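Field log, afternoon session.

UNIT: design team B
ACTIVITY: writing a sequence onto a fixed backbone
BACKBONE:
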């Protein structure tokens, strides 16, 4: 169980898909600290179990824990790709149901809501400036992310963006499209 005494809340971001990103931010009175950044791969059941296991480490009865999972939008540019929006949506819905079934309230959030029309390299650059990710992401991948090039760490950085949005603009689960279990 997480034992950081000055932490007010834990905010978790998940970017679902065959390659899933997972990020945990701990919020104190004066700052927000990146506690965990993971890249997960596999089938949806394995990924959901890995997310549950990682989330359980941050569970604490005296602190607020909020989970945001990206709800993939079906759009022409990405929908029919091998690992496109259809697959990501299936993974996201599965992760949502799996966590809700274990008693967690989960907010589904669209990409437009957390990142708008900001280009990936610009959003990644802002997140890399705001948080200390060097202990998780290798230097060559940091360079790729800043340059807007493909990196194995794109999904975890997107998950960081989702969690960051959850810190800056808290969304009540009841405000989202889905009602908690």
């Amino acid at each position: 169980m997480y034992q950081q005494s000055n932490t007010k809340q834990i905010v978790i971001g998940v970017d679902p898909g065959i390659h899933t990103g997972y990020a945990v931010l701990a919020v104190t009175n004066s700052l927000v600290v990146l506690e965990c950044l993971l890249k997960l791969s596999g089938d949806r059941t394995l990924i959901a179990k890995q997310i549950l296991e990682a989330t359980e480490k941050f569970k604490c009865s005296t602190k607020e824990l909020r989970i945001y999972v990206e709800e993939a939008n079906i759009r022409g540019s990405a929908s029919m790709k091998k690992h496109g929006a259809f697959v990501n949506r299936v993974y996201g819905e599965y992760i949502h149901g799996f966590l809700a079934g274990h008693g967690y309230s989960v907010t589904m959030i669209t990409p437009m809501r957390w990142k708008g029309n900001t280009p990936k390299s610009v959003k990644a650059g802002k997140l890399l400036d705001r948080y200390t990710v060097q202990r998780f992401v290798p230097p060559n991948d940091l360079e790729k992310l800043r340059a807007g090039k493909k990196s194995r760490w794109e999904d975890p950085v997107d998950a960081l963006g989702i969690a960051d949005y959850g810190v800056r603009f808290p969304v009540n689960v009841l405000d989202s499209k889905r009602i908690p279990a």
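LOG NOTE: The first helix runs from residue 44 to 56.
NEXT ACTIVITY: expression trials, pending approval
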